Amino acid sequence: MREQMERLPRFKAAAVQSSPVFLDPAATVDKAVALLTEAASHGAELVVFPEVFVPGYPYWNWTMNPVQGSPWFERLWRASVDIPGPHVDALRAAARQHGVVVVIGVNERSPQSLGVLYNTLLIIGSDGELLGVHRKLVPTWAEKLTWTGGDGSSVKVHSTPVGPLGALACGENTNTLARFTLLAQGELVHAASYIALPVAPEDYDMADAIAVRTAAHSFEGKLFSVVACSTISPEIVDTVAGDDEDVRRMLARPRSALSGIFGPDGRPVTEPLVDDEGIVYADIDLAKCIQPKQMHDIVGHYNRFDVFRLHVDNTPRTPVTFTTDPAPPLPSDETGTAGATKEES
What we know:
Blueprint: H1 2-7, E1 10-17, H2 25-41, E2 44-48, H3 60-63, H4 66-78, H5 86-98, E3 101-109, E4 117-124, E5 130-135, E6 158-160, E7 163-169, H6 176-183, E8 189-194, H7 206-221, E9 224-229, H8 234-241, H9 245-251, E10 258-262, E11 273-274, E12 278-285, H10 290-295
Parallel strand pairs: 1-2, 2-3, 7-8, 8-9
Antiparallel strand pairs: 1-12, 3-4, 4-5, 6-7, 9-10, 10-11
Helix pairs in contact: 2-5, 8-9
């Protein structure tokens, strides 16, 4: 980390705004590889994809009651990703082939339970190494019908060729303590992955919400943020809405997606992309993070750690824990009858 801090990389970043091939993981991974290849051909060294890009977002949680949505949970489970597994291997191979750092969202199946899916961000190094598997800490609102929350073990900053990189999914970027945890580990590049949210309340502008959250983290942390959001394809509308015209109108709502790249002053480095599919590119120079830190360094001189303390439990959580050594055998007599006296046996 110290070596990277001293050399302060300069690189081109790419934020992908696109829709998945809905509920088709293999085809969506193929699309992701094609988009990654396109971004790399334009010189990108960091490519950030949307939240749960593989194989898509459970919009039915917002348009159906839980009983109606239950068969859709099974459909999503069957289309989700195993880690490790062939879909992740394909993404890793593409990152290695093109020498780019990749952040991409997937629906991850639990290895322990058929009832557990995670909203997961994969952080893949330019050598194809899987650097991080971050499970969204708290599913937002209706998302709780689909996803189980992750634990603190994955709230990490990763050493990469583009600098110290952290990542959060969608509403996690509202969680001040989660963001501070990344900043306190030296984060200088933040990847924020979102989904298009036309199903929010009518007075909620998702594009503005993304911009506000991204600007806040960039300004508070004096760093660069690369934010990537999905779009709503006609295929998603047809699949989720069917003949329900009210749902079709809802899913067509404008200003539901924004992708872009923001600098340490909180402003966009280049014009963000709203609603339309595409890739936003920008050149990043991490040396531009130095001078703003002199004014407000909330993980350094501009804090009072004698007054405020943040404790993070980064223990991995599993459904069951076994001791390494088996329990000692019960005492037995010479006939091998365990736990009995000679008189009893």
